[in-house]
Design brief:
One of its GO terms (biological process) is abscisic acid-activated signaling pathway. By secondary structure, this protein is an all-alpha fold. The chain has a domain of 68 residues. The chain is 74% helix and 0% strand.
């Protein structure tokens, strides 16, 4: 530890604490609290830094995955558009000869008198 008063080898009993006056005792306790608080704050900063790094890594990974999915979607859209174009061209070519022929019409015949 940072201070010698926390070392268990140097402290053999409570005689030293009993010889301190209340002001020194309060100062010693305040110093112990400050040290513990400083250590706790350092641990908290380390946890926060680790969490932030983890989130940044996740953002980068998800950004790359999103870009990959967008590229895949664009490829699928292009393929689908090409397929639609190929399927529409034969249909229009098949209809062209039909347009040249005279349309077939039903003719009325008189098969029965009224």
């Amino acid at each position: 530890h940072e201070a010698g008063f926390l070392d268990p080898i140097r402290r053999r009993g409570r005689k030293r604490d009993s010889t301190l006056d209340p002001v020194e005792k309060a100062a010693l306790q305040r110093q112990k609290r400050m040290i513990k608080n400083r250590e706790s704050a350092a641990r908290s900063r380390e946890r926060k830094q680790a969490y932030t790094s983890e989130l940044e890594s996740l953002v980068a990974k998800l950004g790359e995955e999103n870009a990959q999915l967008l590229r895949h979607q664009e490829e699928c859209n292009k393929k689908r558009l090409k397929q639609l174009g190929e399927s529409l061209i034969p249909v229009t070519e098949q209809r062209k000869p039909e347009l040249r022929k005279p349309p077939r019409m039903l003719r009325r015949t008189c098969s029965m008198e009224w």
